[in-house]
Amino acid sequence: MANQWLSWLPFLPADVPADFASPREVAAFELAQALPTLSPNLHVSLAEDDSLGEGFHAVRKGDDVTIFGGKTGLLYGTYWLLMALASGSALPEDHSSAPQYALRMINCWDNADGNVERGYSGRSLFFQGGKLTYDPARMRQLGRMMASVGLNVLCINNVNVHNPAQLLIEDDLPDLAKLAAIFRPFGVRLMVSIDYSQPMRHGIPTADPLDERVQAWWKHQAEVVYAAIPDLAGFLVKADSEHRPGPFTYGRNHAEGANMLARALKPFGGMLVWRCFVYNCQQDWRDEKTDRPKAAYEHYVYLDGQFDDNVILQVKNGPFDFQVREPISPTLLAMPKTNLALEWQLAQEYTGQQIDIFAMPVMWQELFADMPRNSIMAMAAVSNLGNDACMTGHPFAALNFFAYGALAWDPDACQPDDIIHRWIRLTYRFAPDDENALADVLLGSRHAYEQYTAPLGICWMVTPNQHYGPSPDGYEYQAWGTYHKADRNAIGIDRTADGTGYVLQYPEALRRRFESTQTCPDELLLFFHRLPYTFKMRDGRTLIQRIYDDHFEGYEWVERAASILKALPLPDFDRALVDERIGRQLHNAREWRDIINTFFHRLSGIEDVHERKIYR
Amino acid sequence: MANQWLSWLPFLPADVPADFASPREVAAFELAQALPTLSPNLHVSLAEDDSLGEGFHAVRKGDDVTIFGGKTGLLYGTYWLLMALASGSALPEDHSSAPQYALRMINCWDNADGNVERGYSGRSLFFQGGKLTYDPARMRQLGRMMASVGLNVLCINNVNVHNPAQLLIEDDLPDLAKLAAIFRPFGVRLMVSIDYSQPMRHGIPTADPLDERVQAWWKHQAEVVYAAIPDLAGFLVKADSEHRPGPFTYGRNHAEGANMLARALKPFGGMLVWRCFVYNCQQDWRDEKTDRPKAAYEHYVYLDGQFDDNVILQVKNGPFDFQVREPISPTLLAMPKTNLALEWQLAQEYTGQQIDIFAMPVMWQELFADMPRNSIMAMAAVSNLGNDACMTGHPFAALNFFAYGALAWDPDACQPDDIIHRWIRLTYRFAPDDENALADVLLGSRHAYEQYTAPLGICWMVTPNQHYGPSPDGYEYQAWGTYHKADRNAIGIDRTADGTGYVLQYPEALRRRFESTQTCPDELLLFFHRLPYTFKMRDGRTLIQRIYDDHFEGYEWVERAASILKALPLPDFDRALVDERIGRQLHNAREWRDIINTFFHRLSGIEDVHERKIYR
Predict the structure, then answer these.
(1) Most CB atoms closer than 10 Å: which of A32, A399, A563, B602?
(2) B588 exposure class (CB count in 10 Å sphere: 0-12, 13-18, 19+)
(3) A349 is catalytic
(4) Per-residue pLDDT tens digits for A92-119
């Protein structure tokens, strides 16, 4: 059923026809099907103005609206208008909008065999049995979903390019070109993850970026690819990371590695997106000098200014890996002469796996509070979509996809409260009390998840590999560089100048804020500091009491949320999923609460001042 | 190369021909090929005497030896003679031997898809792609290996019967009959693991053992099976265990469940082997009342006397699951009116996975010191074989298969020092110094493994699922009932009368020994008692110091073993494997040493009195 899949676009029941070639045709089609029910008296004209590019300008005179916009701007303006009507907003007389970031990307971690790495919504929408295999109608729905929230680049294959996904830019290129054509009318351009060592599959004995044979191979391959897909957004690369090949193998730095590929793409306007996720994933846990959060900065910042202008370094929001709470990655603030993309993960790998409710906008706004908007020029997010009947596994996880589009378009226009209400209104059209009730749950969900899981920025107390559920020592003696070093007295890694020095990677204001326990935000205290359990928080509680309190409160929140959700008039399809998942969330939150509390009680021997039940 | 595979039988280079039908033919063939090199002047006659059954009686007069024996006794006598010659033992003038236990079984945990559950020597010797698929020559080698050490029953499929392994007693029965014929001349009878719910695959809506349709189905199926394989040893069943179906589903006890099957087998002389491995594998870690080691006793002992005479309850050596050190299972001492089989695990699931050296005879003798030989009437062992070039993964792991045969034949004749020397002599024919050096390594290997892994009977500090390498809290909050509850002051579960009461399951002498910390063996202290780290051991050390000492000493032992092994004149094939594996053992032992020591140092805050390096 299309509506279940499209979530926030229930007012567009008819599929976009297969024979459209331009965004303008799509825009006209959507207006024609939606206006009669949303606003029968309104008359909307589309006026193409290429100078507006992706932006648009809507002018209303009574019931006459004209949308001026560039080729895709017309489509974005159309969706803006229809969603404004559907969510009951008053139409302004004059509304202009243009995206802050030129590239607003979705990265799918889909493997050619149909598995989705860290996917929690079923199998791949694009692949099966080693081949591109998709439902064209669903692709158009996906194109529409993306366009409706302003997203314009889709990378369909996993950054870990497992055989035979490398064939996307070779034997499977004709099929990829067909897929690109499906997305084109939605203003969505494809991108493709490539294998850095691919020349070696063609008889070249090296993948050294300074080797002329390697350069020639990529130059030729880019010509082949762009002959088939002239508007391909570019290539995405994960190199020298978690056992992926890369320039380090040949003693080259990442500027040399990235520029080589960028130069092959340059003649065609293609971008080379290079993920900055390099760290030692074979660290000896005994080694106290290496501190994984320092890795990206150390590997990249000294290269600022050396990357070609069509290279984009894609940097994760935090210095670790999509934990429930991390400080902003200092790399995002330290490369003014380099194109940066900020990478989020909509897939809830560490944040509840689309079982637990976890609305991300609050987290996103925290980061933007610490980052000038122009530090980056693009945004990317790991997809949370799959081929389940509910495309996001949990119906509420669709909020994150929706809100991410708004954020990538304009971070200032993605205020959590506002965007959450807008999504609820579009999706469920509840009465105000119900809307507010659900909005409160969503708004509070990140805080609650943070309360019942790993405490105060310590990160990583998850079940290894699976990353759902608690395992306080699960990563403690492993090779991933993710340690908390909790002992009977204290917990945490000292990342100040007296410790690993990680905090020195920040600009002065942030450095000062983080390096003192008096100014460091409570939620990041254990990210930056090693503290005794008896440490006095600013609110007068001890650290250990704060940990206990958070865990009891976090679980209680889930209990309250469960009873709120029970009372909501959800449609049957959503009701069944929400009931099933809140049951699992309750179980998960209880495990987290009790295991974390027991773990710290065993270590510290300190009792809860409120004498709540802590198991021995 | 046959010799690599046959390990301790290098003096039998020629394969046993395919057309032999009787053990006597095999015996004559082996004598003919081996005597000319082992003892050219010796003349051996075979004299069948059915009254001796599996036993034999060898009489020597000068260079003339007559072996009297039953059908298979002749073959066992022949292998005894040849191995005595090959290992340089003096031939007595008169030697009689008969097995203590009638059933000396190997249980393979091979799945129909060719995987071996907990297998560390490659894939299945019997299955591939859902079908019985084997090399007949290798089957004859296996038959010879088993016969040479007196083993007489082989169950080829996993006790966890995964689809389509249930077809072994249906569609695949003709193939199974062919395999049975291959093993028959070696005195080896097949056994087959069956799926308790199998009638339900045939339109019967239940597997209730008291349901007449179920009884009739099994009766009929037994007829079908025995028509094809008249000497099948019987069925092996894992019921109501770790998600396997069983009589509990229907409110029946395990006597009712087992007897129903036994009655189907009875007319054909078949045995029903019923594994006593029932416990709650979905325990809430918060639940302090349930104590998994108590489970087998509670589920079975009250049924003593209610099992039919062709039922054998197969009981693991310890109350948990093949840990490096467990006390004897009290169930083995509490069912005088029931046929019991003692189950070992040659596959080194928790004992080094055929990477780390772990010779089992020492462990076996400890158990027999606590158990009258006639408490049991059969023995079973989970196979450590696979289709690797080295059948046991590690060449030294062949010792355990070899020694298990000797143990199952006669526990008194399996003294660790003696059996280890015998195996080395047969396998490597080293000079005495080298033989002694390797024997010392093997003899010490269990103690060393115990020293560097989980301390003093606490068990389970292994990496979950995989069961190799340390994870001190890995099972602590899981559903498997395997907890140590280490906190900043103490560790262990009190299993005395004041605690879970587990110790009350033992006969008085053992109960007294275990229940007092003054008499409980050091190596089992933490199995039975919860003790503070400052507890004074009988030798004056504190518990924590003993833990540190053991871990440093265990690792040092591996270093010494590595240098001893380096100097041995191993054949090339063994040399390569031994070198590779001792390297991995060193790494593993170092991880164990440091992680366990760090874990306890973090908890206790107590320093090593010898100031050796403990990481923070």
Answers:
(1) A399
(2) buried
(3) yes
(4) 999 999 999 999 999 999 999 999 999 9
